[in-house]
Design goal:
The strands form three sheets. This protein has a seven-stranded mixed beta sheet, with helices on both faces. The chain has a five-stranded mixed beta sheet with strand order 9-8-10-7-11. Strands 14-13-16-15 form a four-stranded antiparallel beta sheet. By secondary structure, it is of the alpha+beta class. The protein contains ten helices and 16 strands.
Length: about 325
């Protein structure tokens, strides 16, 4: 029996909950046969898949080494931890959760520093005045070096952060930072502000495949089944299904509705159920319950239309 396909999933918190919900929407239920505290799991109905519950950083490392075939982790960690990441991994899909921006932040008291060009001027002046370079605290040394080099800034030195990076300037261990933020509230609470053009990366959780993993034929076939389900769910998210039910629906009226409005019948007994539906791109409708009037001959029939993602029909 060949080794299972390894799928690495975040082990705790909202990332784990969102990852499990993501797979559940595609009809893939993540289970822990040996209990909730176990760090190994499975996908119901897929005996050849093993779930590895790890931290986001561990998932990134496992993907880099080829020890996991697929994994869910943040793009910020992929770009930071894996040099020339395109050669080692493939970002298959952005998942719509785990949003965070990697940003350059400076003290709010620096009122004249709004852009990276301003920061370059201040860094040069600081070096000339203090005969040392400004310190920058971060856990994202590689992303920082690349970004600052692109802006031509050299008068700084990186101080590795092992704790709360946003507290470094107030503690006197750095003059500025590069860190992740979602709303900016934590930065503001620590007297910091984001540089206007200082967003290094807009990150979110991604489904990632490892190029260097041992991709046997069975692994490829299993991955194809998983990805087909995920792709189908993604396509379904792009549409909403509009349904209505009313009395007096017959074959003649149904035929006219099909011809004029492109409605569909959810099942073969649609006439008996007095129900018709139509799919629309989600950009054309708003979710929720809204009241419409349907014209039947000269009579207006009040109807409650439900907007539901078409994937729920299965």
């Amino acid at each position: 029996m060949s080794a299972p396909l390894i799928l690495a999933v975040p082990s705790k918190g909202r990332l784990q909950q969102n990852a499990e919900a993501f797979f559940a929407r595609a009809g893939l239920e993540l289970v822990k046969p040996r209990g909730a505290r176990d760090y190994r799991g499975a996908i119901a109905g897929f005996d050849d898949v093993e779930i590895a519950y790890l931290s986001a950083a561990e998932i990134t490392a496992q993907l880099s080494q080829g020890a996991a075939h697929l994994g869910i982790t943040g793009e910020d960690l992929i770009r930071e931890m894996i040099p020339q990441s395109e050669e080692s991994v493939i970002l298959i899909a952005r998942l719509g959760f785990g949003f965070a921006n990697v940003v350059v932040a400076v003290p709010q008291a620096w009122i004249d520093v709004r852009t990276m060009a301003d920061l370059d001027d201040v860094a040069t002046a600081f070096r000339l005045k203090h005969e040392r370079k400004m310190r920058l605290a971060t856990k994202y040394a590689n992303l920082t070096r690349d970004f600052f080099a692109a802006h031509g800034i050299v008068d700084y030195r990186i101080v590795e952060s092992s704790g709360a990076t946003e507290a470094a300037p107030a503690a006197g261990t750095s003059e500025m930072i590069v860190d992740i933020t979602t709303t900016g509230a934590t930065l503001a609470a620590n007297g910091l502000k984001t540089i206007e053009d200082g967003v290094i990366l807009r990150s979110q959780a991604n489904l990632v495949a490892a190029r260097t993993a041992s991709w046997q034929q069975t692994h490829r076939e299993t991955a194809r089944l998983l990805l087909d389900r995920i792709a189908a769910q993604k396509r379904a998210e792009a549409f909403a299904e509009v349904r209505t039910r009313f009395t007096g629906l017959n074959d003649k009226l149904l035929s006219a509705a099909r011809e004029k409005f492109g409605v569909e019948t959810p099942c073969s007994r649609c006439t008996a159920r007095q129900t018709v539906c139509r799919r629309w791109p989600t950009s054309c409708v708003k979710t929720g319950r809204r009241r419409y009037l349907l014209r039947r001959s000269t009579t207006f029939i009040p109807a409650i239309i439900r907007f539901t993602p078409s994937s729920r029909r299965n």
